[in-house]
Request: fold
Amino acid sequence: MSNVRAGAESGGAALALGALGVVFGDIGTSPLYALQTVFSIDDGVVAPTHDDVHSVISLVFWSVTVVVSVKYVAFVLRADNDGEGGIMALAALARRMVRPGGRRAVLVMLLGVLGASLFYGDSVITPAISVMSAIEGLSVPEPSLRQFEVPLGAAVITGLFLVQRAGTARVGRLFGPVMVVWFVVLALLGLRGIAADPEILTALSPHWGVLFIVEHPGIAFVAMGAVVLSITGAEALYADMGHFGRDPIRRAWFFLVFPCLTLNYLGQGGLVVSDPSKVSNPFYLLAPSWAVFPLVVLATAATVIASQAVISGAFSVSRQAERLGYLPRLTVRHTSQVESGQIYVPAINWILYAAVLLLLLTFQSSEKLATAYGLAVTGTFLLTTTLFLVLAEAAWGWSRRRLVVVGLLFGGLELVFFAANLTKIVHGGWLPVLIAVSVATIMLTWQRGGTIVTAERRHKEGPIQGFVRWVRLEHPTRVPGTAVFVHPSDQTTPLALRENTRLNHVLHEHVVIVSTISENVPHMPDDDSITWHELGEAGENIIHIALHYGFQDDQNVPLALTRARDSGVPVDPDGATYFLSRITLQRGPDRSMPAWRKRLFIGLAHNAASPIDYFRLPNDRTVSMGSAVQL
Reply:
């Protein structure tokens, strides 16, 4: 028993270390630019005076405490959809708890789509601003090096996206020890700044923030638009839960990340109070001059890790959206033999890379990027809070009073953050909004187009029982072997089956129609994942097999059929020929979608992952047949 316990503890420690290398990179590098941005916003409307510095540090500390420690780590991490996190998983869980098919269920998924879309906006900005904020430390001791910052930033970003194929587990093991060093250095630098002005410790009292808001509401409102930079990464923390689990994330946060961040922000505040001229870059100026260049190297490594947090989160959200019917089929590569949530999605990786690189070359500095940052993050915060409250009422039976109190605590603060960031719209804040609108349009178009195409396809296919009766009456020639037809349901006839019979005038001795069904849960246990029944009479050898998958499961059809055979289902996957119904989409007269959305849907369909790869079918035994379907 002691060995088991030791192994579990060791595994938990390894996951916590991995979480440091993936989950906390974004929020862990916020000290690089958060306070600097607060005091530079609107040409220094927040002054580096004793009272203003104490007030800002108080706002930062209590924002991190309320939004990250209380909301996300203590509350939202409880809302795990069978171990998976992220706003799409939260929306799917909330939808499952409310009345199916009702307006509330539709609204819940719409909020999930909007939240996921905003998360993509964050995923584009975070790598650019994080990497640039670190590399800009080069010009602190040597201003002539400024000309190399953008090329170096582009090179670092390129390297980051190139290593994604190695997988989250390997990246986490590589980055985890680096982040331990990073957080320890944050704490040591913070202690150095606190020593310069020990009175800064009183900034932990909330009264400083409250007085600042009461006495200078306008300035405090502007400051909140930059204070939010200290909590960016909280949503990525939730989205990455499926990679490492809830408990390792909580342990890493409370035992290392939160204390080190607090010390560093206090240290930066103490430095600025003792010497207001250092407000230009309080993070790097905390370090002695001899340590600046090594600190730049460490900070660059840490910001690469910060980018990893949102990239791996984007992979998870993308696969969840695809399985829930809001994105076309994606090629997903599993990068771990143990953790199913550790994946690599090539299409998402390279789309993000192109967008991040374009953003970096356009804005070229962390100060300019900061004007575009915050709106997507705060919008996602609000949507997560709303969905969490829906879930808390529907699943946990929270009282109305409790919902109101929690909603005001979290939603009220986040609404202030969101409103403060609305002022950035014309200065770059439009960018994440544009990204979010574009992604939401794609997701909603795919979901709507899929509904229309499915209805048209079913009409063309005709009922399966009609086909079975035809086989019984016409007695077509049966040839040896097993034909497996991958098809959405057992109600209609696969187009490939109908076309193969019509053109070749034969039917295989064993006909198996396989439906892959994506359930509204992340994972399906093996015992519940396979069901089957006869479609014809005994001896006609036409059966239907339903393979049930969670939205995080790999849809490997041959492997599932092997499990089905081993459990007694009459199917031979090893010698089977697989048939796919190929659909050629054409724009038709249906007016339920505008022409531009039809073109978008058709374009998305053409670029979807190959069903052969998606379902892990053998290339040499797979045949595609079908016909045109109008949209």
Observations:
- The radius of gyration is 27 Å.
- The longest helix spans residues 103-135.
